[in-house]
């Protein structure tokens, strides 16, 4: 079937290691849009972090952000989907991370919020390209704010995998828990994942899932790659992502997104 909607992950997919979109990818995406194909971003990033890339590509389709917790139109500001972490569950998760002494942060009102500027927090802030808002107590802030998601960061992969396993064992039926990178553990509402959010966008425009192409590289992309009519993994993708995909394109350093769009859209 004709591809009418393309959803692109950002980090390690559309973006190169310098967090830039190549001129080739920009040109191919704009050509696809000129031919009538809708292009959107589907990312774990916060909305304000994804927005500059959307504007660079002149995207006018709602963006899937926060791993699918928030779908918002770039032009009108209309919200199509909004699924923050339920307050009582957010408290449990933050208390767990606090007890273990790992870096964790959350997102209130589309702001990156932390209690202290740790080394991990500084790294993440630079990666996301957003300023950090320091608060005295992230848990106390839940009284007045929705947590769009909660992220823990550690370079000890063993510890991160143990946390993932324990959280899934205790709260896996109530929350969506995934890794976006080997050292990023992300916790969202059970109703927040890229596949569900992408379906909201497709339904909004009357597009069949068979007419959707999704491109990604990491664990948090597997659901949308499996859901889409055509799932594409990057050459640099993790093994399980490639296994879930219908096609493996070139790496993010080799304009793999441009290759996939040329092959299946143009």
From TrEMBL:
InterPro entries: Cof (IPR000150), HAD-like_sf (IPR036412), HAD-SF_hydro_IIB (IPR006379), HAD_sf (IPR023214). Gene3D superfamilies: 3.30.1240.10, HAD superfamily/HAD-like. CDD domains: HAD_Pase. GO terms for molecular function: magnesium ion binding; phosphatase activity. GO terms for cellular component: cytosol. It comes from the Bacteria. Transmembrane segments: none annotated. NCBIfam families: Cof-subfamily, HAD-SF-IIB. PANTHER family: HAD SUPERFAMILY HYDROLASE-LIKE, TYPE 3 (PTHR10000:SF8), PHOSPHOSERINE PHOSPHATASE (PTHR10000). This is Cof protein. It comes from Syntrophomonas zehnderi OL-4.
């Amino acid at each position: 079937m004709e591809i009418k909607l393309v959803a692109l992950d950002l980090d390690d997919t559309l973006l190169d290691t310098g967090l830039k979109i190549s001129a080739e990818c920009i040109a191919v995406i704009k050509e696809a849009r000129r031919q009538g194909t809708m292009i959107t971003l589907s990312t774990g990033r916060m909305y304000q972090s994804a927005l500059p890339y959307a504007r660079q590509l002149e995207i006018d389709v709602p963006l899937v952000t926060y791993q699918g917790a928030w779908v918002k139109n770039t032009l009108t500001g209309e919200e199509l989907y909004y699924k923050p972490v339920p307050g009582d569950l957010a408290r449990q998760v933050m208390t767990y991370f606090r007890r273990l002494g790992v870096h964790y942060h959350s997102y209130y009102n589309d702001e990156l919020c932390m209690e202290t500027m740790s080394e991990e927090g500084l790294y993440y802030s630079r990666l996301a390209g957003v300023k950090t808002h320091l608060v005295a107590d992230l848990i106390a802030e839940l009284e007045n704010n929705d947590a769009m998601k909660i992220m823990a960061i550690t370079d000890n992969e063993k510890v991160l995998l143990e946390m993932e396993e324990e959280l899934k064992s205790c709260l896996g039926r109530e929350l969506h828990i995934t890794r976006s990178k080997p050292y990023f553990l992300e916790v969202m509402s059970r109703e927040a994942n890229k596949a569900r959010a992408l379906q909201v966008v497709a339904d909004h425009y009357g597009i069949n899932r068979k007419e959707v192409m999704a491109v990604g590289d990491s664990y948090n992309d597997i659901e949308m790659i499996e859901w889409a009519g055509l799932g594409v993994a990057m050459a640099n993708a993790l093994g399980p992502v490639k296994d879930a995909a219908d096609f493996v394109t070139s790496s993010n350093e080799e304009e793999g997104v441009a290759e996939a769009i040329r092959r299946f859209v143009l």
